[in-house]
Structure to design on (551 residues):
């Protein structure tokens, strides 16, 4: 138990718990809209934001060059989400929009980090996660952002379900459809920047989608899918982080691998149970 | 006939659309169409595929912008607030989304949006969360279409007819004074058609106006008070349907064929035969 008294481990577990709870909430809405890969598109734009923040830090001569990396990621991710949502609402194919952001984000990130005098190695922590470097400042920012995600994502669940389930009907009822769609996109962007520290840009989408995919095998209701996915997300992140305390493995990769293995196991068991009945 | 007591607070026309024009991607689809529906009146909107029926109802419910003309709902220009007493059943194949949802959850989502017709910010905020009695009302709506026992079932596992009834319940849970349905009978089993016909009968008695897009009058024929035929974006007929002959008696439907014929593609109004 003395390990739990270590501030670093407290920070890691707290951020992991918040991310594990918050990411599946937004993942449920993305799966509902059949936009499971949106997180990947926004994640790559966030990477360009990390590099832009890095560049700004070097231009301003900040002592800690990456001090603006996360704020940069938040700004870019939200900007990317707004662009995706506006183009989608104007009828542009969602997969094409995401592909453009996907490539533009990676290319922009590599170019900007070069201009900032850094190397691609500086981006690795953001590509694959770097939870062991979280500060208390990061923790409090994560607490604030995760609280906003949970408050809005859970509090407006019926309204966000209505809009993601049947936009045309929602519009006929007088719901502010465009505003609610934008809320989903922006919250997804915020979720990605929070989760980026834990699993990295390359795997951030997995933390949003895999728990939902597992929960869907077990439940038949939208609300229950969301709640079960939150529980699965929290267990996965806490388990993954706890294991990495004892073994030298990459936390993000371990968390996602555990999730995929859990999906395969649950799918196998539910399939056998169905055949048995 | 509708009960006069139930329609006392309603304007003479629940919906009054005049000279409505709608363009999609630069092409005008509706060329100045009109429609009215009074309390307790059931209006059938008929026409062939691509005639503009669905475009018309989608413009009335606010899903498509109009380029010209006026649409009044309950005596006021159409707006999110004036749609508080509107129920809409869109044309669709399935009631299911990407994540499983129960029939109760789908119907409960119908309780959001404008409720009391007020356009105030506070009223719109309240419309983002369901009212306290949401589940009881949703169950009552499911009961009214005969599927309360399916309340906790995943809608994606229900039959096409049952899914359609869930969507009708989602519109009815708003206690609408005007119900607009876009081809509710498409791909629906006979039991659901009969149930729906009963539902429309009750609504009519309660003074609810019903606008229903149909390919054919079919099981609904005895409820229809007026038929409006749209052909190539224009209204070509507006009047009471000759009930004994159904769609075959409508002006422009100038051929005769047995009811076992395949759907008409080019004859008369382009209306599909039964």
């Amino acid at each position: 138990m003395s390990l739990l008294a270590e501030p670093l481990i407290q920070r890691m577990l707290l951020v992991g718990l918040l991310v594990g709870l918050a990411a599946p909430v937004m993942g449920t809405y993305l799966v509902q809209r059949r936009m499971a890969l949106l997180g990947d598109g926004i994640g790559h734009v966030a990477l360009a934001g990390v590099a832009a923040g890095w560049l700004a830090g070097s231009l301003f001569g900040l002592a800690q060059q990456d001090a603006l990396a996360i704020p940069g990621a938040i700004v870019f991710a939200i900007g990317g989400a707004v662009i995706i949502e506006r183009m989608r609402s104007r009828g542009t194919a969602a997969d094409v929009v995401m592909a453009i952001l996907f490539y533009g984000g990676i290319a922009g990130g590599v170019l900007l980090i070069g201009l900032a005098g850094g190397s691609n190695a500086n981006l690795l922590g953001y590509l694959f996660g770097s939870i062991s470097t979280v500060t208390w400042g990061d923790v409090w920012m994560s607490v604030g952002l995760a609280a906003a995600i949970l408050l809005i994502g859970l509090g407006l669940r019926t309204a966000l379900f209505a809009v993601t389930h049947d936009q045309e009907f929602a519009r006929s009822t007088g719901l502010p459809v465009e505003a609610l769609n934008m809320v989903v996109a922006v919250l997804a962007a915020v979720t990605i920047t929070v989760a980026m520290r834990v699993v990295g840009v390359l795997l951030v989408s997995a933390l949003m989608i895999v728990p939902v995919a597992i929960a869907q095998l077990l439940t038949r209701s939208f609300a229950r899918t969301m709640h079960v996915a939150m529980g699965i997300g929290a267990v996965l992140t806490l388990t993954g982080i706890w294991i990495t305390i004892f073994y030298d493995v990459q936390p993000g990769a371990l968390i996602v691998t555990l999730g995929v293995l859990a999906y395969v196991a649950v799918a196998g068991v539910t399939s056998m149970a169905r055949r048995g009945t | 006939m509708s009960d006069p007591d139930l329609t006392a607070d309603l304007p003479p026309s629940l919906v009054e659309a005049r000279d409505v024009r709608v363009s999609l991607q630069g092409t005008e689809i509706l060329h100045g169409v009109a429609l009215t529906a009074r309390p307790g009146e059931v209006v059938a909107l008929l026409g062939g595929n691509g005639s503009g029926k669905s475009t018309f109802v989608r413009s009335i419910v606010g899903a498509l912008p109009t380029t010209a003309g006026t649409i009044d709902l309950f005596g006021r220009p159409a707006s999110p607030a004036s749609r508080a007493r509107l129920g809409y059943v869109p044309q669709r194949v399935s009631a299911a989304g990407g994540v499983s949802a129960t029939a109760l959850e789908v119907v409960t989502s119908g309780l959001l949006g404008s409720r009391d017709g007020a356009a105030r910010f506070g009223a719109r905020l309240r419309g983002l969360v369901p009212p306290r009695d949401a589940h009881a009302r949703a169950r009552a709506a499911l009961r009214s279409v005969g599927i309360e026992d399916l309340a906790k079932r995943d809608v994606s596992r229900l039959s096409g007819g049952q899914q359609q009834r869930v969507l009708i319940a989602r519109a009815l849970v708003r206690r609408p004074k005007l119900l607009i349905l876009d081809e509710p009978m498409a791909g629906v089993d006979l039991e659901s058609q009969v149930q729906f016909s009963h539902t429309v009968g009750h609504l009519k008695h309660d003074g609810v106006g019903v606008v229903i897009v149909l390919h054919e009058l079919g099981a609904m024929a005895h409820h229809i008070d007026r038929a409006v035929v749209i052909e190539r974006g224009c209204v070509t007929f507006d009047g009471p349907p000759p009930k004994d002959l159904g769609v075959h008696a409508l002006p422009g439907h100038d051929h005769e064929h047995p009811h076992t014929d395949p759907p008409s593609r080019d004859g008369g109004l382009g209306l599909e035969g039964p």
Chain A touches chain B at residues 28, 31-34, 36, 155-156, 158-159, 161-162, 164-166, 168-176, 212, 216, 219-223, 225 (CB under 8 Å). The mean pLDDT of chain A is 88.
